[in-house]
Design a protein that fits this description.
single chain, 344 residues, alpha/beta, 7-stranded parallel sheet, 12 helices
Length: 344
């Protein structure tokens, strides 16, 4: 007999919804309960559905008494009830060392062999590492109902830059994208990072035309499916897009690899996009090899594997795991952020 467990999703940014919704569907299919916690003022607040069970304060969180708490971000409140699970918000993009046991999670649900091996190599015994595939990508392998509405009869380029001031391409590529959206018969979708500045948003919104659409959405799947080429910089969205065996173009990528088309002069943008739209077989082979290393799962069942791993840990408990480091500063910051000053 299957036990109906209580799951809590800890969310601060809108990109978390695309990671957690497929898991939510799998949980509901199994009869588990699902609730959401979003800190007041978090960017994700504008993307919660009216039908979602949102817990509004710590009293409600404690009363809900979850069996597991899931977070796509790097940190999770240690004082929330339940096993703590990292489900990741992106692939390793080279922006920083993502392979880090931070002492907050009991379980890491990894995406593919490369990250699994990396986490196993540094596992200090305070957590478990289970390769499940990435739940966010489950819908990628079945065409979304909205995908067709984004397709065009001309090449479609999806521009999705990162937010980091040191790595983003928004300012460097703005004039080139502006020019190409007017002079070239390509169509564009622009979706900026949730942490993009107001200035960046205003810049690209001003470019909207019958050839360029500026979108604010938490669901990238139809955009990924509809587009022919992705343009970015140093962002994990490059790897997500490439999993469709489509070419990606990266501006000043921090860690350029053979599966991407990397360039460093803004004036080269048109040339690089043209090359991507007629990608050579060697490039496509490099993309396929890379995808096998980061996410070999094409069955759309990663959410099922994630829930299996979590339910298994709930059933066994965490008594076999070593004690986590104190991380006093980070824990105090989390308590201050959520206005909760008890130790448990």
């Amino acid at each position: 007999m299957t036990t109906n467990n209580k799951y809590l999703f800890y969310v601060t940014l809108s990109y978390s919804f695309s990671v957690l919704r497929p898991i939510e569907q799998e949980l509901q299919k199994r009869g588990h309960q699902v609730a959401w916690f979003i800190p007041d003022g978090a960017e994700a607040e504008g993307f919660i559905d009216a039908a979602d069970n949102r817990l509004l304060d710590m009293k409600a969180v404690k009363q809900y008494n979850s069996d597991a708490v899931l977070a796509p971000g790097n940190y999770i409140p240690d004082f929330f009830p339940g096993v703590k699970v990292q489900v990741f918000h992106g692939f390793d993009s080279g922006k920083k060392n993502k392979f880090n046991i931070r002492g907050f999670f009991d379980l890491y649900c990894t995406q593919g062999p490369n990250i699994t091996e990396a986490f196993n190599a540094i596992n200090d015994g305070t957590c478990e590492v289970v390769e499940t595939g990435w739940a966010k990508l489950d819908p990628l392998f079945t065409e979304h109902a909205d995908t067709q509405s984004y397709r065009t009869d001309k090449p479609l380029i999806f521009y999705g830059p990162t937010f980091s001031p040191k790595l983003t391409s928004t300012y460097d590529l703005y004039e080139q994208i502006k020019r190409l959206s007017v002079n070239k018969e390509w169509h564009w979708i622009v979706k900026l990072h949730p942490k993009a500045t107001a200035e960046e948003i205003a810049m690209f919104k001003a470019l909207e035309s019958d050839r360029l659409r500026f979108l604010e959405t938490g669901n990238l799947i139809p955009l990924l499916q509809a587009s022919d080429v992705l343009l970015s910089d140093t962002s994990s969205i490059l790897a997500e897009f490439a999993l469709q065996n489509k070419p990606v173009v990266a501006y000043k990528n921090r860690r350029p690899e053979s599966w991407m088309i990397n360039f460093s002069e803004a004036e080269q943008l048109e040339q690089q996009l043209s090359y991507a739209l007629s990608a050579e077989q060697k490039l496509l082979q490099n993309i396929e090899q890379h995808c096998d290393a980061i996410h070999p799962y094409r069955d759309g069942q990663s959410s099922e594997r994630v829930v299996n791993a979590i339910d298994d840990l709930i059933a066994r408990g965490t008594g076999h795991l070593k004690s986590k480091p104190l991380n006093l500063v980070r824990r105090l910051k989390m308590r201050k952020k959520l206005k909760y000053y008890r130790w448990k």
